[in-house]
Amino acid sequence: MREELLQERQKRFSTKDQSVVNAKDLKKSFGEKQVLNGLDFYLNDAENVVILGKSGSGKSVFIKCIVGLLKPDEGKLQLWGKDVNEMGPKDWEQIRRKIGFLFQGGALYDSMSVRENMEFPVKRQLQEVSQSELNEMVEEALDSVGLLDAIDKMPAELSGGMQKRMSLARTLILKPEIILYDEPTTGLDPVTSREISLLIREMQEKHKISSIIITHDMPCARITSDRMYVLKEGKFTAEGTFETLQNTDDKWVKDFFI
User: pTM of the prediction?
Assistant: First the structure.
């Protein structure tokens, strides 16, 4: 059954016809250091893509280009068919509303309750939302990750896994079309890591979200990925399903799976 599902996913995500992110020959340098060196990439609608790469290989730089925190030096980067180099401030404002970012450390506000943490991005982005609408949005997002009972707790009262769930709920509350995950299982025990990985897959299937997942956690990569890329020396040198890359003859790629 698993093999049939994998084959179906591979068939579904084997073309660029429905890509929401598309990069071609992308380059980015900092002084004399070339970080991205002709990177090609695509992410389809409702697809999960995992990016593997050693520390400092450029994974975070690529993600920052996608959200407009960095501007590529050369090449083409398109989001929903729009070239980022042609976007103005208003374009980026609209694009960023469609992209959620799950930070490695969670980036929760310690002085705010779970409810207040959840309300914060909504109040910043949607000023005309009524309190009753806001309450409904908060409760719906927390319920989707199984944290509704923790709505009035403080972040310090939550376990590491619960904090990750809360961070995901806060990302989901604005209903993004893309979520960028930066090491979503870092610092968690194996059982909790698996729970978060399964939750990422569940959110994709339930909300039809496209996701880019940066991780060194191979069980997480196996559970969450439809396709995977391996970043080396500023380029993606391998691309395919978890099983395809796991069985490759390329020793450099295979070392990630040991």
Answer: 0.85
